[in-house]
Specification:
single chain; 261 residues; mainly alpha; 9 helices; 2 strands
Length: 261
């Protein structure tokens, strides 16, 4: 399966993965409201705001990506076009090409943005609370997110990038998984140091925590999504189970050092 080329929409030119010529480019800040020429009776004009501020210019790539995410949610991958992204972001299509050379770069950047947003959101949950409570709240939020409309689209985006751009040496889902294990492993190592737990394999502990949640979501996905109350009950039971194992499982903790005789 290949990425669909942008299809003509009404009177619009089809979008290609080649930067348009300067003569066809719209200026940054243009609000594309129609294709009729100004001055024609009943025509819609193109308004220009002038040069964008520094803050607007710095935020523009993110605004374009957020518009692309909204287009995906509304139209799906099959009808995803830069024309639609441009209209949604209220910019000229050429402005997208000045930031992203084509759809591969755009979708990779979109995946990176949504991954970063999700990671920061999850890591902020339970800040200042005891570890067991923080991990419990985070587990519940992860499950809710994965089963939401945004979460399901994120899964499709990862699969799409892997199918279209991944290869034998790089896979997007594997890279995301490795990053998540590293982050959770560092948290657990810090926790073990504070609690004086001889955690010998933080990476393995992180894998257990992440895989347990993902496995539960996949199994629950075969039935109607559980209620928030059910999700929170499972998250609490799972967190208590996990931390009990963390303290007592020999494969995760280092053996006690025998005192010298």
């Amino acid at each position: 399966m290949t990425l669909p080329h942008d299809c003509p929409d009404r009177q619009e030119q089809p979008c290609t993965d080649i930067v348009p010529a300067a003569g066809h480019a719209a200026c940054d800040g243009s609000a594309i409201a129609g294709s009729s020429q100004a001055g024609t009776p009943g025509a819609t004009t193109i308004s220009r705001r002038g040069r964008p501020s520094l803050e607007e210019a710095q935020r523009l790539p993110t605004r374009i990506l957020e518009a692309g995410w909204d287009v995906l949610l509304e139209h799906g991958f099959e009808a995803f076009t830069f024309d639609r992204v441009a209209r949604h972001a209220r910019i000229g299509k050429a402005t997208i090409y000045t930031r992203f050379s084509g759809k591969r770069e755009f979708l990779e950047a979109l995946l990176a943005l949504k991954t970063s947003e999700r990671r920061l959101k999850f890591m902020a949950i339970g800040a200042g609370l005891p570890a067991e409570e923080a991990f419990c709240l985070r587990a519940a939020e992860i499950m809710e997110t994965l089963q939401s409309t945004d979460g399901l689209m994120m899964e499709r985006l990862v699969d799409w990038c892997d199918q279209e751009f991944g290869d034998n040496t790089y896979a997007y889902r594997s890279a995301m998984y490795a990053e998540a294990i590293e982050g959770v492993g560092e948290e657990l190592a810090q926790l073990a140091s504070e609690r004086q737990i001889a955690l010998g394999n933080p990476e393995l502990a992180a894998r257990f925590w992440i895989e347990g949640i993902l496995g539960h979501v996949r199994m629950a996905g075969a039935a109607p999504p559980p209620s928030r109350e059910e999700t929170e009950r499972w998250a609490r039971a799972y967190s208590e189970f996990f931390f009990a194992g963390l303290r007592n499982t020999g494969s995760l903790t280092l053996p006690a050092v025998s005192p010298e005789s």
